[in-house]
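Q: Could you fold this chain for me?
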Amino acid sequence: MKTLSRDTLPRGGFAGIKETRLIKDVKIGGKSDTWDGIGSFVYLADARYLPFGESGMHPHHEVDVITIMLEGRLTHEGSMEHGQSMVANQAQVQRAGGEGFGHNEINPQQHRTRLLQLWALPESAGSQAGYKIYDTNNGELHRIYGGGKNQSATFDSHTTIDTGLVAKDYVVNREGEHLVYVVNGEAMLNGQMVQDGDLIRAQEIDLKVISETAHLTLIGMA
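A: Sure. Below is the predicted structure, expressed as structure tokens.
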């Protein structure tokens, strides 16, 4: 089991965003202070949009862009689902594919908005662009990405992403290599305490939430 703490890494950003990058895989030009991902998962940033901040309109091609909302609100503009808004404990998944898309994400409020930004590379090139949004606030982990063709609610991939806001004593047991990111809470994971901003890589997961609530994101392989 290895742990990478967000607060040990440099804080960067662009436009109206401040972020810490924890995963930047060698496939996309990884850096020495970030980790590689798992499977097709290649990028993870813990980000805050400044008051009324925005990313600015920009394009994506042949990448799946996953946004997990943690605090505040975000308004989505672009070539797919223009005008869609997200609030805390929702997740947005956009597949650029060969068609591609352009988008701009905006914090419409005077308070900072916190989110996780994840990227995964599609397993087949040239697919059609697509958009999905999920509610993840009912006390369970939700499969928002991957898991094979039988997972009809998600975009197909052998790489899986599960996320959700869960309560005290919630238990997760998984076999095989996983990445776990903890937000706004604490948990015991394989006998060690982990907390907000901790990214863990382990060959098996035995986790129990010990705070009143915690937001968990798990990345693995189906």
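A (continued): The domain at 2-221 is CATH 2.60.120.10 (Jelly Rolls).
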